[in-house]
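Hey,

Quick one before I head out. I ran the complex with glutathione overnight. Inputs first:
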Amino acid sequence: MRMALKLFKMDASPPVRAVYMVIEALKLPEVKYVETDLLNDDHLKDDFLKINPQHTIPHLTDGDFQLSDSHAIITYLINKYGNNSDLYPNDPQKRAMIDQKLHFDSGILYPALRENDEPIFFGTATSLKPGGVAKIKSAYDFTEKFLTGSKWLAGNKLTLADISCVATISTLNELLPIDEVTYPNICAWLNRCEEYEFYKKGNQPGLLEFRRLLKMYLALRSVFMAIEALELENVQMVDVNLFKGEHLREEYLKVNPQHTVPMLADNDFYIWDSGILFPSLRGTVEPVLFWGETSFRPENLAKIKKAYEFMEKFLTNSKPWLTGDEVTLADICCVSTLSSMHVVLPIDAEDYPNLASWMKLCALQQFYVAGNIPGLEQFERLVKQKLDT
Ligand SMILES: N[C@@H](CCC(=O)N[C@@H](CS)C(=O)NCC(=O)O)C(=O)O
């Protein structure tokens, strides 16, 4: 069989990843990939519009045959190259159940994703709107029900239904994390899907790319808007390729040990901002305080350790306080979070000497004694009580 398959793609796109997974599952050789960067408007260029007036990716070319829409593409690939694959069996009822879930992806899951991520990538949104969140939750509710008493979305075998929906649901999970307690079936199903080689090769890399873009757009957009609002001219934009580890190079770490983007350099003055402390505390205690878990998850404790490491570096400046010789709002703000973190994961003075002595210094201040201790003690009691139950 001579193939001349060409796929117009961008790795972060969920429907593109559904096609990748099928290509992997069928082990189709020699597919040619054409990068189509939506963020660069590649899909609106004349050549692409000629073959796909709807300007969506994925788009497949098989010789002279042109086909868009991931659901149409994956069923076509199985029909033509699948050798009666179990992913899309010929039995009319089995096939109908799979088709139903493909339409569920097209009609419910994917629109919920698009409504939420488009305003971030192509508009100015920096958070999800309540209406958008409600659509995602409703999509999760349906999926949870479909998976009650069934390992897979269309019967007792993995099929195209799972491949198509997992590309979208794993991406929705980046926008609105799927809570294990409310959605145990979805979480177990996601874990099952993640075990497959086609998922690891076809979905995981693009999902990470989606996560990177999402974070970058959320963080960068506010800075871009401020630059516009202040009508600042001559701002030089420097691309920092996180995948190539450019943020981990020595010269970058020297000025920004937290190695984040965006970072502004104003001559010798470097400034960046990335919420680390409170999100890692909240992420760790929330499952225990509100979701009935009885121990802290190791992956969350690892985030707290990372936060301690950053603090240790910030305090390696032979100055007693976070921003110099004087106590400032920076110390007050950070110590309220760090003292709570210390309840969850005690700060070891051997590992973090600077951090431990800064904590001691803070604890001696009147503002700490009067303003922090009563609430901190209450927090400690609450955490202990939940861990004991
Ligand atoms: N139902 C389509 C959705 C395709 C789609 O909307 N893809 C997005 C990227 S994830 C796109 O191409 N957006 C650009 C546009 O619509 O102009 C499918 O499954 O392929």
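Residues 277-388 form a domain with the Glutathione S-transferase Yfyf (Class Pi); Chain A, domain 2 fold (CATH 1.20.1050.10).

Talk tomorrow,
K.
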